[in-house]
Design goal:
The protein has 359 residues and is an alpha/beta fold. It has 18 helices and 10 strands. Helix content is 45%, strand content 14%. Helix 1 (9-17) crosses helix 2 (19-27), helix 9 packs antiparallel against helix 14 (277-295) and helix 12 packs across helix 18 (347-355). The longest helix is centred in the last third of the chain and has 20 residues, at 235-254. The model is unreliable at 1-27 (pLDDT under 50).
C-alpha cells in the first residue's frame, strides 16, 4: 500500500467486517472521491479531529464522500491542490499567502487552529525567565527558513532585543534530535510548536514556554485551503467535508479519551507498541489535550470562522519580514461563506456520538 494513501472509512470498515459489507457497498450509490493533502507526515493523535474522527463516525461516508488523506509536507501539499491532484490542503497559512502574492488561486475556507501555536521554550530548570533573558543565548529552530523564526524575531524586537545581534540561531530539526539539543545544552531556547512540546513532555522533559502580545496577534493558524474554482463550482462538497471536521473537533473536545481510542482503531500504527496501555493512553491524551487548546472557539465564534483581523495581521507580518513581495488582498485570501453550512449540525447528536466512542 502506498503510505501516502491513507485508507478511507469504507475500506477500513470493509476490512474489519468482511466480504458481506463489500457486497453491500457494491450495491450502494458511488460516493464522490475527495483527496485532502495534509501538511505533515505524522497523523498522530493531535490530528484526530480532522482525520480519524470523521472516518470513525462515518461522517464523510454519510455525506456521500469517499475521502483519501495524503500526509506530506506543507509545500508539497499545497502544490498538489494547485495542480489539481488534491481537493483540499490542511496547512499553516504562510505558504498560501506567499503563493497568493504570486497570483496562485488558493483560498482559506476553514480556520482549524485558532491561536498561535508556535513558542520558544526552555527547560523548567533554566534561569531564563523572560524573552529579555534570551540575550546572548542560542535559539534552536526547525530550520532557518521556517515561519517560526520570523515570529520569534518579532518577539525579540518587542522585548527590546536585536534578533540579528543579540542571539544565535541554530537549526535543530524536529523530534528527538531537537529535544536532545535542548536537554544537552547545545541550545538554550528551543523554538517549536504545540504537539512537539507535548511529545517532549511525554518524554519526561519539563518545559516552560513563552509568548507575547506580538505572537498572540498571529492567530491565523492551520487552515483548510482550496483552489478558487472549487469555491465557485463545488460549494456543497466544501460544506460537507468541513462540517465533518467541525463535528470532529466538537467530538474530540467532548470525549478526548474516546477520540484517542477511535484514532488508534482507525490508524493502529499510531499506537505505541512499546508502551503499556496506561502509558500510551496518558501520553496520547496529553497530545490531544494540548491541541484542544488551539482548536477551541472564542466566545461567539463559529467553527471554521476566520476573523478578518487575523488574516490582515498575518499578511502584514509577512510583508514586514520580507516574506512576500507581491500585493495580497485579505479578501482574496479567505472566505467565510461556508461557515453557516459548516455549523449546521445537531450538537446534541454530536455529544451523543462522542459518548459512544470506544472506552
Amino acid at each position: 500500500m502506498n503510505p501516502n494513501r491513507i485508507p478511507t472509512a469504507a475500506r477500513l470498515i470493509a476490512g474489519a467486517l468482511g466480504c458481506a459489507l463489500v457486497a453491500t457497498a457494491a450495491l450502494a450509490q458511488p460516493r464522490e472521491k475527495i483527496t485532502i493533502a495534509i501538511g505533515t507526515n505524522v497523523l498522530d493523535a493531535s490530528q484526530a479531529n480532522n482525520t480519524s474522527i470523521p472516518i470513525y463516525s462515518k461522517c464523510w461516508e454519510n455525506e456521500g464522500l469517499d475521502v483519501t488523506l495524503q500526509p506530506t509536507n506543507a509545500n508539497a501539499a499545497m502544490q498538489a491542490v494547485l495542480a489539481g491532484q488534491a481537493d483540499f490542503v490542511n496547512m499553516g497559512p504562510a505558504a498560501a499567502i506567499a503563493a497568493r502574492a504570486k497570483k496562485a488561486p488558493i483560498k482559506a475556507v476553514y480556520l482549524n487552529m485558532r491561536h498561535n501555536f508556535q513558542f520558544p521554550v526552555v527547560l523548567e530548570s533554566s534561569s531564563i525567565k523572560s524573552v529579555k533573558d534570551f540575550k546572548g543565548k542560542t535559539i534552536g529552530v526547525l530550520s532557518y527558513g521556517s515561519q517560526m523564526v520570523q515570529v520569534f524575531k518579532g518577539m525579540l524586537v518587542e522585548a527590546g532585543l536585536d534578533p540579528e545581534k543579540d542571539v544565535t540561531w541554530v537549526e535543530t530539526g524536529s523530534g528527538a534530535q531537537a529535544v536532545t539539543a535542548l536537554t544537552t545544552g547545545r541550545v538554550d531556547v528551543w523554538g517549536t510548536w504545540d504537539s512537539q512540546i507535548a511529545t517532549a513532555e511525554n518524554m519526561g522533559v519539563k518545559l516552560r514556554r513563552f509568548t507575547s502580545p506580538y505572537a498572540e496577534k498571529l492567530n491565523f493558524g492551520g487552515s483548510y485551503f482550496v483552489r478558487d474554482d472549487m469555491v465557485e463550482k463545488r460549494p456543497q462538497v466544501i460544506e460537507k467535508v468541513l462540517r465533518c471536521i467541525a463535528m470532529g473537533s466538537a467530538t474530540v473536545m467532548a470525549n478526548p479519551d474516546g477520540a484517542l481510542k477511535a484514532h488508534w482503531k482507525v490508524f493502529p500504527a499510531t499506537k505505541p507498541s512499546s508502551q503499556d496501555d496506561a502509558t500510551a493512553t496518558r501520553q496520547g491524551l496529553h497530545l490531544i489535550n494540548t491541541r484542544i487548546e488551539f482548536l477551541k472557539l472564542e466566545p461567539g465564534a463559529k467553527w471554521g470562522e476566520l476573523p478578518p483581523a487575523a488574516v490582515t495581521n498575518m499578511i502584514n507580518f509577512m510583508k514586514t519580514n520580507g516574506l512576500i513581495t507581491g500585493e495580497v488582498k485579505a479578501e482574496d485570501l479567505y472566505t467565510n461563506q461556508f461557515v453557516p453550512a459548516i455549523n449546521n449540525f445537531d450538537a446534541a447528536k454530536v455529544n451523543q456520538m462522542a459518548g459512544s466512542l470506544p472506552k
